[in-house]
Amino acid sequence: MNGALRRPAFRRLTVAWTFSNAGDSALYLTAPIWAKDLTGSNASAGLVFLALGLPVVLAPFAGHLADRMSRRLLVVVVNLVAALGVLSLLAVDSAADIWLVYAVIFGYGCVGYVTSAAQSGLLRDLLDDDELAGANGLLSSIDQGLRLLTPLAGAGLYAWFGGGAVALLTAGLLLVAALVLVTMKVQETPPVGRGERAGFGRELTAGARHVRSVPVLGQVIVVVGVAFALTGLANSTTFAVIDDGLRMSTEFFGVLASIQGCGAVVAGVTAGRLVRRIGERAAVGVGLTCLAVGIAGGLSTSVVLVAAGTVVVGLGVVWMVVGLVTLRQRLTPPRLQGRVSAATNLALNGPQVVGTATGAALIASVDYRVLIAVMTVTILACAAVLLVRGAAEAPRTPSAAPSLAPNTDDDRFTGIVQS
């Protein structure tokens, strides 16, 4: 991580990431509370997460866009557009306006896929292989660690002044992020020229075909995709745990999110070392194990045990994300980073959207503890698959030069895939 932070452009990217993710956390973690207060329904709160996840079907287009223009400029523009969209939430006043909450969250989800794809390419252009894991750990810990303060601030702002105040806060933070990125200097990998491109269909699906062509990457994504499908249930069971298990108000959701940030901060600081020590695939397995154990804490009616489980979830999420993202970035050529990032998001978040919809449908008729038990067992099984395979994988010492995996589109990229 120290090597990455010596680069001025990465420091600016980190500052912009901090502001934009503070806005994200304030909005994402307040919107479900807002939805439940407007409608009185756990299902309505869960549908906020569904609206956030549905844009996954557009992820390939986001990745294609990120590989066809300046990624820095693209992130600046979409942050400004997102800020304008969030301000429309000032019009929400009653349950009749709940559709606007869903619409804004859907649009914000689309923006998230564009910025994620663009940032993957920016990191690959900015950093060497041995800097990726630490940098990803830092960014993930910022993303999750902001939950220490942002949810409490967002929930407090919401409780005192309403959802409109949270919208103003988020829009302002996005504007600051855009302004910081305008000042960032980076030598970007130029996109493939028009004359060198394949047909639109092949260009659009290049990310998915690359994932299939690299066995270790494809295997990890499939296993994590199964686990993600089950975590979608948590978007509805969380409110049942708070209401029925702990007998707390919905605002306690913000407290739990902040507690999760404690584990995330520790995980972000240690993620680079973990990846170097046991390898990316095994790091993902360890993260999934922590995630399953933490989710199981929701079976308790003790605030202390639920809170402890939430800390463990924070550890698991960051270790899992850093291991997977570092593996993906390392085994993907610069000009494919956006599309492979988008293909990965589709493979992971698509099943999670289905899980979220399933959870919203089942939570009214199935005991939430049954859903938590199913999540725990399945995610533990996924972790076991990766840990058994990862145990035979010798940890790799990253090289200073980027490793290029074969590109299934054409012969522009060649090299040896290190696994």
From TrEMBL:
InterPro entries: MFS, MFS_dom, MFS_trans_sf. It is a multi-pass membrane protein. One of its GO terms (cellular component) is plasma membrane. The keyword Kinase does not apply. The keyword Transmembrane helix applies. The chain crosses the membrane at residues 12-35, 47-66, 73-92, 157-182, 214-233, 253-275, 282-299, 305-325, 370-388. This is MFS transporter. It comes from Jiangella asiatica.
